[in-house]
Amino acid sequence: MAGRSGNPHLELWIAATGLSHGEIARRIAAAAKAQGHRQIAPDATRIRRWIDGERPRPPVPALLAEVLSEAVGQVLTPGDLGLTATGPELDSIQLPLLTEAAAHSLAGWTQMDLFMNRRDTLKLAVGAPLILAAERMLGGTAHALNSSTKGFDAGTVTALEDVTVFFARADASKGSGLYRSAIVAQLAEVARRIQDGVPRSLRTRVFAATADLAALAGWVSHDCGRYGTAQRYWSYGVYAAGEAGQPDRGVEIVTRMSHQMIYLGRPGDALGLLGVAGAKAQMPATRALVASQTGRVHAALGDERAADRHLGDADELLADGLGDVPEWVGYFDAAEHAGARAVSARDLTGLGRGRRAASVHFHDALRLRKPGFDRVRVMDRVGLAAALFDEGEAEQGAAAAHRALDDAARIDSTLVTSRLNTLLDAARPYETTAVNDVRAKARELAVARPTTIAA
Q1: Is 116 contained in some domain?
Q2: Mean pLDDT (the chain, rounded)
Q3: CA pair distance 199, 204, nearest whole angstrom
């Protein structure tokens, strides 16, 4: 159905109401009259033209959204209905809570990504639109129209689960550069199959695996400097987690979105996202993750007391044991929390909130890291070297930096490059042969792997 119309989003939502085109036209005319727009009186033919791609002028999009919202029992916007200037694929990270329409949006994002792959053309959502979108996706309930079951069978779901695990492990080991296009192409295929129909018996598995894949696609896109694209994939991951009945999975993905905001220098937005996530987190592992990340954000804001409180909450949860931890949050452990404590100490010191030994926490993180997390281990090594420079240990810092840079050369990641820039800043006060060698090598690696995608 979606492939035959000029505006599949509108067509799908009209189908969800169960109303005829004539009845929708009548309700629009009544709503327009009640608001003083007596000249607006569409008929069934006009509704068909809108579905075929004709764009009505204001205030009709708002009136249509109002009528359809009342009919389906869910708040819709003109963007949800495909009635904004460029359509919902481009101008919002909010997905329509309708299975087929959400998958159609995802397909549009992946197509843009794969065929316009020289730069990120999607606008980054920040501030209130970002926080409200996360809140809506975590609390939403989806509707499905398609009764077909031809999109998946048990074998294809198992294959999807297996390939997602492979990609996740490869990314953690080698970085995102080599695998990102393959991950996005896999996500595009999943979007197509979801539109073809998901058997009821496989629905939880399909959407759980899709949430994992979308979360990974968002992470590797972020790691390649495609920040707006990453947000779209993450938003679908949150949506898919809800379809799978796994709200804590959605919480974990929102923490990834908050991490991006920290990385982009917007700690206030990161804190807003974590507030949304914390309100929904139920599992000890996700509660500890949110607490650790929240402490880190408060440190970036220079609030030492709040940072200590939240980091301490994570300490207590870890000490009590996280119980049965799903694989999708298995990366969060004492090592990951030690890394959060390390960067918190670094940020607080940089803001003049006391001198804390970040190197101690980086040592802890490296000691506790499990095999297979090569990228984050490299980031810890680079962070340790920078911390030693900050703490006045130039000789130790140079030795640690040389070891870290040898490892960094094998990882394709802009996140690692960002740490290299931190290392260069920390090394600036020192003028020794060893430190000069570190600077030269770090600059060479940073130039080879810029932190954003070039146009």
Answers
A1: no
A2: 88
A3: 10
Number of structural domains the chain divides into = 2
**Cα–Cα distance between 313 and 379 in angstroms, integer?**
25
Q: pTM for the complete prediction?
A: 0.80
**Using the 8-state DSSP alphabet, how is residue 369 labeled?**
P
Parent domain of 412: 371-455
Residue 199, in any domain of the structure: no
Query: 175 — phi, psi (to 5°)?
Result: 95, 175
Q: Could you tell me if residue 364 is inside a domain? A: no
DSSP secondary structure of 35-82: TT-TT----HHHHHHHHTTPPPPTTHHHHHHHHHHHHHTS---TTTTT
pLDDT tens digits, residue range 238-253? 999 999 999 999 999 9
Nearest Cα to Cα of residue 391 among 446, 433, 342, 438: 342
DSSP string of 260-322, one letter each residue = HHHHTT-HHHHHHHHHHHHHH--SHHHHHHHHHHHHHHHHHTT-HHHHHHHHHHHHHHHHH--
Find the range with the poorest average confidence among 67-71, 152-156, 227-231, 451-455.
451-455
**Would 173 be classed as within a structural domain?**
no
